């Protein structure tokens, strides 16, 4: 049994805090059933309210994976490396977990890596403008099934979003309501069954990297939506091995020029020596 001492940053219910902290629904229910959350020695229940500044203790069998790691922070921005199994926006999201920040771009729930978040309105407008104009460059690395011969070339395709099914489809040519996507791929390492691929994202559309690679015949290992289930089970991966390892601000306006040409990097351990 592990003992975790925590200081509450945002007022809310005990259960909401456990989920935001990173415990799964099953883990949180077990902790609450055993009454393993205490404040001032008193056991708390799911709907009890805990306030900002409170000190609590949680007893659990297994600590959750960290939801983020802080890479840089000043009065305008917070740069983090996002962990898996958490949304950027919505209930029990990074925006809820981290006080005083606004997300200006997104990573999929199970995609990890570098993100920049705004801490005030000016920074939010500034960063949104930079993303819209393509002034922020992001690079990804992933493990795919297969052995592609990518040489860093840009590949164009068309993406059609199916909101009802929360997925997208890729086409070689334009279909009604589709949008053009541009992605670059470079093979870093070939293995017997899988390869490491560096990805450059030039149009940031929903599930673009995951769907584009699957369309090309090289699904990302662990991808439950666009991957191959028997492959994911074989490699025992519960989420896609896709990580944003670099975010570079090439240009930025509105009194935030000090961030221009600044690059934030967080390489994943499974690909670090190839980047």
Overview of the structural elements:
The chain is of the alpha+beta class. Strands 7, 8, 9, 10, 11, 12, 13, 14, 15, 16 and 17 form an eleven-stranded mixed sheet that branches. Strands 1-6-3-4 form a four-stranded antiparallel sheet. The protein has a two-stranded antiparallel sheet with strand order 2-5. Helices cover 17% and strands 37% of the residues. The chain is built from six helices and 17 strands. It folds into three domains: 2-60, Structural Genomics Hypothetical 15.5 Kd Protein In mrcA-pckA Intergenic Region, Chain A (Roll), CATH 3.10.290.10; 68-133 and 251-259, Pseudouridine synthase; 139-243, Pseudouridine synthase, CATH 3.30.2350.
Overall outline: globular
Strand content: 35-45%
Strand tally, please? 17
Helix-strand pattern, N to C? EEHHEEEEEEHEEHEEEEEHHEE
Put simply, the count of helices is: 6
CATH fold title of the largest domain: Pseudouridine synthase
Give the overall pLDDT as a whole number: 94
Give the N-to-C terminal Cα separation.
38 Å
Largest sheet: 11 strands, mixed
How many whole angstroms does the radius of gyration measure? 20 Å
Q: Which spans of ≥5 residues are poorly predicted at pLDDT below 50?
A: none
Q: What's the CATH class of the largest domain, please? A: Alpha Beta
CATH superfamily of the largest domain: Pseudouridine synthase
Q: Percent helix among the residues?
A: 10-25%
Number of domains: 3
What is the CATH architecture term of the largest domain?
2-Layer Sandwich
User: Which structural class fits the helix and strand makeup?
Assistant: alpha+beta
């Amino acid at each position: 049994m592990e003992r975790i001492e925590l200081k509450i940053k945002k007022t809310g219910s005990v259960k909401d805090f456990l989920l935001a902290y990173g415990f799964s629904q099953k883990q949180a229910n077990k902790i609450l059933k055993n009454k393993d959350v205490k404040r001032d020695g008193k056991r708390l229940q799911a709907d009890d309210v805990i306030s900002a500044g409170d000190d609590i203790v949680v007893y659990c069998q297994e600590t959750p994976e960290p939801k983020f790691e802080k890479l840089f922070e000043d009065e305008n921005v917070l740069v983090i490396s996002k962990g898996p199994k958490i949304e950027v926006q919505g209930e029990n999201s990074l925006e809820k977990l981290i006080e005083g920040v606004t997300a200006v771009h997104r990573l999929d729930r199970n995609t990890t890596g570098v993100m920049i978040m705004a801490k005030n309105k000016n920074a939010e407008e500034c960063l949104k403008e930079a993303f819209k104009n393509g002034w922020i460059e992001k690079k990804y690395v992933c493990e795919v099934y297969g052995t592609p011969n990518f040489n860093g070339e840009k590949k164009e395709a068309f993406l059609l979003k199916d909101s009802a099914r929360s997925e997208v489809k890729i086409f070689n040519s334009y279909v009604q309501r589709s949008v053009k996507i541009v992605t670059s791929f470079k093979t870093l390492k070939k293995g017997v069954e899988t390869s490491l691929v560096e990805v450059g994202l030039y149009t940031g559309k929903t599930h673009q990297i995951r769907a584009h690679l699957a369309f090309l015949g090289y699904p990302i290992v662990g991808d439950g939506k666009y991957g191959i289930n028997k492959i994911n089970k074989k490699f025992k991966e519960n989420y896609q091995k896709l990580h944003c390892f670099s975010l570079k601000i090439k240009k930025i306006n509105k009194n935030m020029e000090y961030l221009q040409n600044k690059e934030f990097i967080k390489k994943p351990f499974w690909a670090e020596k190839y980047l």
